[in-house]
Each structure stands twice: as structure tokens, then as C-alpha cells.
Amino acid sequence: MPKKPGSPQQKPSTTLPGTVEKIIQPPDPRDPEKAQIDIQGAEDLYREIRIDNTLKDQDGEEVALKQGAQVEVTVKAHFETNKPDGSSKKKD
Fold this sequence. Notes:
Elements: E1 13-24, E2 34-39, E3 48-52, E4 55-56, E5 62-63, E6 70-76
Antiparallel strand pairs: 1-2, 1-6, 2-3, 4-5
């Protein structure tokens, strides 16, 4: 589908709910603390991620997540890295 002039094309994405399981203090106080997030709907071995616990709010102010916070984890893909999902393949 051709891109319409003046309208940004949306990247393919998926969003999953998550919960901040714990906040991990760094061994070196100069490093940022980490937030460990449990992603609901992910496979058991891959459902936890850790990110720097340094976020910015809508005003650009630094904020941090708290244990138990409900979050959304979004994955966006660049168009040139996508491939068809196979649903339109011919069946033998």
C-alpha cells in the first residue's frame, strides 16, 4: 500500500501488559538502578526483562518506576526488517 503524502506510516507493533517485580540497586552507586519487569503473555523463560529505571514524564522530568507498578511493554519494528507472517502461503 503506498504511503499517503503527509501521513506518517505506523510501524508494526505489539504491546503486552507487565508488572514491575522488583527494583534492583546497582553495585556501583554511579550506575542507574534497574527495574525488573514481568511481561504477561511472554514465554516463561523470556518473560522478565530489566531496564534502567530512569524514565521521563510528559514534561521531560525524570521519574522512576516503583515495585508493583503496572506497565505496558511495546515492541515496534522497522518496515524494512519485517517479513510476511505466512498466513497467505499456499498449502500443499
